[in-house]
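ok, trying the design again with the full structure, not the truncated one.
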């Protein structure tokens, strides 16, 4: 079977690479000719562990190719996946122009039965619009070619996308034809041999499933962040509360880590888009509105702690920052808490020296020469007044506290990800501020660290 993936972004590349890995012939299409030129040379535009190797291996086997010609790709393929971007427009709703343009291209170029599958995260009801766009183009050509549309949302986590695709918890497919169901079953068979289900449902429910999943996860995060803030006020320790509630299997340990708010390309956009869908249907989605407002507040919690430590006067203070990406294992900074925190620090007159294991280049697009970029984590602390941790990269978890102490003008750490133990930090003689736990007076007799 030959399939086409339109849109060689994050989702498209992972999808294309993983389908080719199990032996399916895949053509990946993108309108960005520079990107396609690079991909053909084996240069991958994103950082995702394992992706480059997988792409190169399958290109060499002749099962994976890249082109700008959607026409040839569509003509040769039985299944076309749409995985182009749906950026939010000004009012927060998803902009469908790219998705519908691909649908039109399918209608313009298909010569035989084609199954058109939407993988991009699109508002409920979009697959119907895709169907209309394809049919409209067929009508213009005055031809009658059978086709189906399906919705197949992705649940890939950045940094773990290959594993998520190869060993999914579940695959959700919305469709309304037996032919389409049999095609999708055979395409996903290699990924479901270990018993993970393909859940077939109607198209609208599949579209809704994606939003509901991300909204539920975002809700867990905003919930624990709200509780964390209250813990701090009443003198409870959110790290203990988290363990206490997570042990109830109905709640579970995952996705209840407090921090500086969720970021990334999915949660903020999808929560907003779902609120918008509800608005358009005259329904007031109250829980998600609260989820969003807690998240906005949370993104500035760490800045507020730093600012109040210095009594609202950050002029001339130098902050060493560890971590810029919205989470570890990615260079993605979309909606990263670091953007909000660093911008607030700069506006308040502070100097920022930052390090991230992979996101430094990306950060340059956001901050230009407004901050200092360091190639190594301890370099950020030279002449700095404090350390702020904004992403929980593994390499930050066991640092040399001795070096940190030696370099900083005083032992002062603001941790937005709760990666250190408050009591140990006090023993080491640090003033340590984290999320959802009151800080503790540092001990005078400091241990050797
Ligand atoms: C998410 C979904 O997990 C994935 O299924 C969907 O397809 C796309 O969106 P991703 O954006 O890659 O994936 O990131 P994820 O690992 O889910 O984390 C999202 C954000 O939540 C990050 O900013 C992270 O720091 C934050 N988070 C996560 C917390 O603050 N606490 C947690 O307990 C978990």
């Amino acid at each position: 079977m030959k399939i086409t993936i339109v849109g060689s972004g994050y989702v498209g590349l992972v999808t294309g690479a993983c389908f080719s890995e199990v032996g399916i012939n895949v053509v990946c299409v993108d309108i960005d000719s520079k990107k396609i030129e690079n991909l053909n040379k084996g240069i991958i535009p994103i950082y995702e562990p394992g992706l480059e190797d997988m792409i190169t291996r399958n290109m060499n086997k002749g099962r994976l190719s890249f082109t700008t010609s959607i026409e040839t790709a569509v003509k040769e393929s039985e299944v076309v996946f749409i995985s182009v971007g749906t950026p939010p427009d000004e009012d927060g709703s998803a902009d469908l122009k790219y998705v519908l343009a691909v649908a039109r291209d399918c209608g313009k170029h298909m010569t035989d039965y084609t199954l058109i599958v939407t993988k991009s995260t699109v508002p409920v009801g979009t697959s119907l619009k895709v169907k209309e766009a394809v049919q409209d183009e067929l009508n213009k050509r005055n031809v009658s070619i059978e086709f189906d549309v399906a919705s197949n949302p992705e649940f890939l986590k950045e940094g773990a996308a290959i594993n998520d695709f190869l060993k999914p918890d579940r695959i959700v497919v919305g469709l309304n034809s037996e032919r389409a169901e049999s095609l999708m079953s055979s395409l996903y068979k290699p990924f479901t041999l270990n018993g993970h289900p393909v859940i077939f449902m109607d198209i609208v429910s599949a579209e809704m499933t994606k939003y509901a999943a991300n909204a539920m996860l975002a809700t867990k995060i905003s919930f624990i962040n709200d509780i964390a803030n209250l813990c701090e006020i009443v003198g409870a320790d959110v790290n203990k509360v988290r363990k206490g509630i997570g042990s109830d299997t109905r709640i579970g340990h995952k996705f209840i880590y407090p921090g500086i708010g969720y970021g990334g390309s999915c949660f903020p956009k999808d929560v907003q888009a779902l609120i918008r869908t509800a608005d358009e249907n005259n329904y007031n989605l109250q829980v998600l509105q609260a989820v969003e407002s807690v998240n906005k507040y949370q993104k500035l919690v760490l800045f507020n702690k730093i600012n109040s430590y210095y009594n609202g006067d950050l002029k001339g203070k130098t902050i060493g920052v560890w971590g810029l990406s919205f989470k570890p294992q990615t260079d993605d900074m979309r909606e990263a808490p670091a953007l909000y925190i660093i911008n607030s620090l700069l506006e308040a007159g502070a100097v920022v020296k930052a390090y991230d294991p992979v996101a430094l280049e990306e950060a340059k697009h956001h901050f230009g020469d407004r901050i200092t970029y360091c190639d190594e984590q301890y370099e950020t602390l030279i002449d700095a007044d404090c350390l702020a941790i904004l992403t929980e990269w593994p390499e930050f978890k066991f640092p040399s506290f001795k070096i940190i102490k030696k370099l900083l003008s005083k032992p002062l750490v603001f941790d937005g990800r709760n990666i250190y133990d408050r009591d140990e930090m006090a023993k080491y003689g640090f003033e340590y501020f984290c999320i959802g736990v009151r800080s503790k007076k540092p001990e005078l007799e400091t241990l050797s660290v």
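Keeping the full-length input from now on. The chain has a mean pLDDT of 95.
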